[in-house]
Specification:
- The chain is α/β, with parallel strands linked by helices.
- It folds into four domains: about 60 residues, no CATH class; about 230 residues, 3-Layer(aba) Sandwich (Rossmann fold); about 90 residues, Luciferase, Domain 3 (Luciferase, domain 3, Roll); about 130 residues, GMP Synthetase, Chain A, domain 3, CATH 3.30.300.30.
- It has 17 helices and 27 strands.
- The strands form five sheets. An eight-stranded mixed sheet has the order 2-1-11-10-12-13-14-15. Strands 7-6-5-3-4-8-9 form a seven-stranded mixed sheet. Strands 16, 17, 18, 19, 20 and 21 form a six-stranded antiparallel sheet that branches.
- Strand 5, helix 8 and strand 6 form a beta-alpha-beta unit.
- Helix 5 crosses helix 9 and helix 12 packs across helix 13.
- The longest helix has about 30 residues.
- The N and C termini lie far apart (about 55 Å).
- This is Long-chain-fatty-acid--CoA ligase.
Length: about 625
Amino acid sequence: MRAPGAGSASVASLVLLWLLGLPWTWSTAVALGVYVGGGGWRFLRIVCKTARRDLFGLFVLMRVRLELRWHQRARHTIPRIFQEVVRRQPEHLALVDAGSGVCWTFAQLDAYSNAVANLFCHLGYTPGDVVAIFLEGRPEFVGLWLGLAKAGMEAALLNVNLRREPLIFCLGTSGAKALVFGRELAAVVAEVSGQLGKSLVKFCSGDVGPEGVLPDTQLLDPLLKEASTAPLAQPPGKGMDDRLFYIYTSGTTGLPKAAIVVHSSMQAADVLYDCLPLYHSAGNIIGVGQCLIYGLTVVLRKKFSASRFWDDCVKYNCTVVQYIGEICRYLLKQPVSEAEGRHRVRLAVGNGLRPAIWEEFTERFGVRQVGEFYGATECNCSIANMDGKVGSCGFNSRILPNVYPIRLVKVNEDTMELLRDAQGLCIPCQAGEPGLLVGQINQQDPLRRFDGYISESATSRKITHSVFRKGDSAYLSGDVLVMDELGYMYFRDRSGDTFRWRGENVSTTEVEGVLSRLLGQTDVAVYGVAVPENGLMKSAVAQGRRECSRSSIKCLLLWRALFQVEGTGGVEGKAGMAAIADPHGQLSPNALYQELQKVLAPYARPIFLRLLPQVDTTGAAPCLFVYPSVF
C-alpha cells in the first residue's frame, strides 16, 4: 500500500512548513496536496484511527529514550540508581515473599546486597567474574545478583528446572567461577557435582537439611552474617552499557544461550504481583527491576498458584499483576471466589494472552487494562499494546514507521530464508501478510542496540544485513507476526528450532541431541505440535487409531504427568513430539521415560513419540497422537 509512505511525506511537510513560519491553513493545504498526490484517501482513515495512539506511543518512546541517554551519559548503573531509592525511602517495603511472609525493606535489601558485594570481594573475586545463581525466587535471589552487580561481577541466572547435562552445559558456557544454589536444589547439584570441576566454588544458601552440606560446599548465610553491610569503599567503574547478568534463553538457534542483559533493559512499571520465575527476563526485569529503579514494592511467589492468586493480590494490595498466557487460562478455570471481586488490580502486564479469552479475563476479574507486549530478553524490537486492542501484542506507527525502525519482512515459509528484491533488500510485508519481525540495529541507541550472546556464532546467526537499506544491520527475532492496516501486530508463530511449552522455550536441537545419545545415535526429529481443544480430541484420537492400524507407524503416548494439572486439551503453546527411527521395534518407551526424567527439564521432555522405520528430516508428516484422558 503506497498511502502510508505518501502520508509520512505529507506529515513531514506539514511540520516543516509550520516550523518555517507558514500559517497552519497553508501548511495543512500543502501537506494534503502532497498526500493526495502520493497515495490516496486510505491514509486519512489510518491517521484518524491511530493518531492518538501513535502520539502517546511517541511520547513514551521519547521519554524512555531521553531517560536512558541521561543515565548513559552519567554512567549510572542499577546499583547507583538503587542507592538513590534507598536514600529516599529506606523503610519502604521493597520485596515481599508471599510463600513465607518474609518482608524486606529497601534498607534491608541494601544491607544484604552490600554484604554479598563485600563477601565476594573479600574472597578474591574481581569485576567481570561470573557467579551462577541456582535457587528459587525469593528476596535472597534479588539480593545476590544485586550485590554481585555492586561489586562489578556478573550473575548467571540458571533455570531451576535444569538437570544433569543441560545444567552442566549452562554452567560451562557462562564461565562461572562460583555457584550459589538454594538448599531446595542441593540434590540436583549433588548429581552433577563430580562433573563441575574442582575450580568451581560452591555456596549453599538457606538452612541445611538433615542430610547435611555437600562436600566442597560452603554455607553462604554464616559468611554473609560476618560480612560488612556498608557500601564498598571503592565501587567498580561500571557504566549503564556494561553487563548486568546473564539470562539463559533457548532462542531459535539451538542450545540455550546466555543472553546479555544490559542495564538499559529496565523499563518503568507499576507495583507488581510477580509469580513468574526470576531466572527469566519477565520476572526479573519487568518485575523486580521496577522495585530497584522506581522504589515500588514487588510481591514474589516462587511458583504460580491459581487458587492463591487473587487472595495474594487482596492481602498485599497489589495494583498490577504479571502473566503469561497460561496463567490467565488457569485463573478462568478456577471457581468464582470472593477474592476475585475484592482486589485492586487495574493492570495486567505480560504476553501470550489468547484473543479468545482476552475479554472474558478482563470482564470477569475487572482488570481495566491489559498491557500485552512482545519482546525477547535480548531483542531490539520490543512492542507493547498501549490502548487495549484485543489480541494485539503491540503496534508500529503507519504514519511515521521509521521513528521506531522495526519491520515484518517476507520469508520462505518452508526454510524461513529471507526473501529479497532485485536490489538485494528484504521485502516488507503488506497489511495482513505474516512475516518475520526484524529490528534495525543501532549500537548508539539503548533501545535499538543488540548486545548478543556469549557465543559469537550464536550472535552472528541473529543478525542479517541490507534489510532497510544497503549495508545496514538488523536483528532477526525468529518470530512470525502479522500486522493489520492500522499497524497493530499479532503474534503468529515461532520459527526456527524452538517451540514454547508451559511458558518455557524448548530447544529442539538440545532435545534431539539428548534423545539421540540415549538411543545410541539413533536418528531423531523433535518438533512442537498443537494440542487440540476438547471438542476435537475424540475425533483426533479415533483418526490416530485408524491411521496406526493401517500403517507401520506407531504412535505412543510417552507419559501422562504433564496433563495431570487439568486433564484437558487446548493447552498453551505446542507439546513436544519426538519422531524416532525404530525399524525393528526395539525401543522401550518406559525405559526412555526413566532416562529422560534424569537429563531433561520437565517442560523439555517430549509428550508424544512417533516410532518410524526411518526419520524423514526433509519434511514433516501429519502428526498422529493419542490423548491420555481417553484410556
